[in-house]
Amino acid sequence: MSQFQPTERTQVKRLPKRGHYDRETVYKILDTGFVCHAGFNVDGQPFVIPTNYGRSGDTLYLHGSAASRMLKTLSAGVPVCVTVTHVDGIVLARSAFHHSVNYRSAVILGTARLVEDPAEKMEALRIFTEHVMKGRWDDVRQPTEQELKATTVLALPLEEVSAKVRTGGPIDDEADYTLPVWAGVLPLETVVREPIPDAQRKGDPPVPDYLKNYSR
Amino acid sequence: MSQFQPTERTQVKRLPKRGHYDRETVYKILDTGFVCHAGFNVDGQPFVIPTNYGRSGDTLYLHGSAASRMLKTLSAGVPVCVTVTHVDGIVLARSAFHHSVNYRSAVILGTARLVEDPAEKMEALRIFTEHVMKGRWDDVRQPTEQELKATTVLALPLEEVSAKVRTGGPIDDEADYTLPVWAGVLPLETVVREPIPDAQRKGDPPVPDYLKNYSR
Questions:
Q1: φ, ψ at B60 (rounded to 5°)
Q2: What DSSP letter does each residue of A103-137 carry, written as one string?
Q3: Contact assessment for residue B14 and residue A69, using Cβ atoms and an 8 Å cutoff
Q4: Which phi and psi (to 5°) does residue B124 adopt?
């Protein structure tokens, strides 16, 4: 199936043209980023915490210290919402009212499962590292048993998912097009700067190719 | 007072050195961005939705269509969490375990107030527009009475607030420093590209100075 089934909770109601439910669009939004915002409740208060993620097929992995409040809360199997957003530009209309933002976002609703099997946990950590930087895993010292134990890994199935995308220029009221106001889009982009070597390096090799050619 | 008072809910417990409660740090994180992630509950399910904001003193304004689920939910006076995050770089350690991300984030907990007074509402819309692009408000057609009515504005007081910041290079285990692995930081930055004029322009003036010199 190339489409996620929209539900009452994920169907985009406002501006439904912006809603997307196909795996291709959702995967691309998820794979372009590596920091999501995870939402969960503690005593009825919602918390929204930025955290890393990795994707493999229809599973999104979250991880963190076994001591973290977020990981402890989510390990208990409570409802979670994970959102990934890319801001692509500021849309400048001729009226204040029609100003907007170009963006791509994916929203995942569900309940995360605690990953307990050591082999699946190790594989999830590989997926994490490779999601952030393809090629890195084989280069670094891999987790010890103790490090694995200190890390909580959660798996969130991609089942109840929607994406929302706005592209293009401003849509003004007909009467406003003749106003003497500059209108259009100011594009924003995330770029990679020169890698900064660790000041404490001893025998570090030169910058690896996967880092030199890094882009998202 | 230059500091927000940490509470049981905002005190950074994991890696407390990363926690900041001073207004200067929090304001700077909020003023560098203009898209936040707002978390709220609908029937016990958390939703995390990207949305625009503006700040004036110790008030964060949110807005949107009066028809939106998020605005309708939040107008009812329910607990909300608003988080703003900037990702500054990927921290590459010699072990998979010590990989990290450099970031600045601010988390605001509270209950938003529906702004009903038309003068305050208009002022909030000015703050919005100026927060996204300083100088823009005086240039554009300002909201009509009907547009004001179609817009819901919420005010969230900055009271229960914390910031979390990670900077600098990787911290590896002592024994790992001699491993032949490149370590350091890959800096990420959001940049502004050339403005794209609206294809439907008629008598638009040249690119205004506030747009030419735009940075965040």
A1: -105, 125
A2: EEEEEEEEE-EE---HHHHHHHHHHHHHHHSTT-G
A3: yes
A4: -65, -40
Chain A hits for B106, CB-CB cut-off 8 Å, are: none
Please tell me if residue A12 touches chain B, with a CB cutoff of 8 Å. no
Report pLDDT for B14.
Answer: 81
Domains of chain B are 16-172+200-212 (2.30.110.10)
pLDDT in tens, B11-37: 988 888 899 999 999 999 999 999 999
Residues paired with B22 in a beta bridge: B3
Average of per-residue pLDDT values in chain A: 95
Structure tokens at A126: 């590989």
The secondary structure element, H or E, covering residue A59 is strand A59-65
The DSSP code for B6 is: P
| Bridge partners of residue A111, in order along the sequence | A79
Distance (Å, whole) CA B136 – CA A129? 42
Using the Cβ of B134 and the Cβ atoms of chain A, whether some distance falls under 8 Å is answered with no
Task: Using pLDDT thresholds of 50, 70 and 90, give the confidence band for residue A204.
Answer: confident
- On whether any CB of chain B is under 8 Å from the CB of A203, the answer is yes
- What is the C-alpha separation between A174 and A183, in angstroms, rounded? 14
What SS3 class is residue B92?
strand
pTM, entire model: 0.96
B193 touches chain A (CB under 8 A): yes
Report pLDDT for B142: 95
| DSSP one-letter code for B208 | P
- The predicted-structure confidence for B142-175, as pLDDT tens digits, reads as follows 999 999 999 999 999 999 999 999 999 999 999 9
Q: What is the DSSP letter of B57?
A: T
Residues in A 81-110 with any Cβ partner in B closer than 8 A:
81-83, 85, 87, 90, 92-97, 99, 101, 103, 105, 107, 109
Helices in chain B by DSSP H: which ranges? 23-32, 69-75, 118-132, 145-150, 209-212
How far are the Cα atoms of A165, B51, B71, B81, B164 from residue B74, in angstroms, in the given order?
Answer: 23, 13, 5, 11, 25
